[in-house]
Amino acid sequence: MTRIYLPSVGPDSWQQLLAKPELHWATGYSARTLAHSWEAAAGLPPEIAQLLKSLGGEAELLLALPEHKTPLPGGRRESQSDVFALLRVARQVVACTIEGKVDEPFGPTVEEWLVDASSGKQERLGYLAKLLGLSEPVAGDVRYQLFHRTASAVVEAQRFGASGAAMIVHSFSPNAR
Question: Would you give the end-to-end CA distance of the chain in angstroms?
């Protein structure tokens, strides 16, 4: 994983970072919608800024990394957040993983993800549970995507020395799905 990030020149810059750029970049879907929302905001989108006020003040975006990959033990690949945002709220720094959704599902539950689980998946699940202070076995009805994205926020908070971590779902669903 590279540690060099290039500046964005607009929403279309985000497309090249997608795992499947041609497939995931379409009007009305989360990747494209999220890129346009964050770029138009020139900082934090208003709904995210409003949510973060609950932490005790105005949030300042220090850094936003689209399609940011966080290495996690076990498994075959990193956790890829739609946006990783490093923020300052009042006197604290907060690491946030942002998951954008329009009407896409959150993927399999932990129980579904564990069907025919490899030793790598078992290792990852144990790591995630320990990191988040959960007892094993993890509830099978939790969506795995939400579980590992939340853990990614904690990993990045530790890496950046942030005092807080958050996983935020940035919803664009016209049906409040």
Answer: 33
Domain count, the chain: 1
Quick check: 87 and 53 in contact, CB under 8 A?
Answer: no
How do residues 99-124 score in pLDDT, each as one tens digit? 999 988 899 999 999 999 899 999 99
In this predicted structure, what is the pLDDT of residue 94? 97
Asked if the structure places residue 5 within a domain, the reply is: no
Q: What angle do CA 51, 57, 59 make, to 5 degrees?
A: 65
Q: Has residue 166 got a pLDDT over 70?
A: yes
Average pLDDT over residues 84-91: 94
In a domain, 166, yes or no: yes
What ranges make up the beta strands (E) of the chain? 59-70, 79-89, 92-101, 164-171
- Residue 6, domain member (yes or no): no
Q: Which domain holds residue 120?
A: 16-171
The conformational region for residue 63 under phi > 0 = left, psi -120 to 50 = alpha, else beta, is beta
Residue 167 domain-assigned (yes or no)? yes
| Dist CA 146 CA 143 (whole Å) | 6
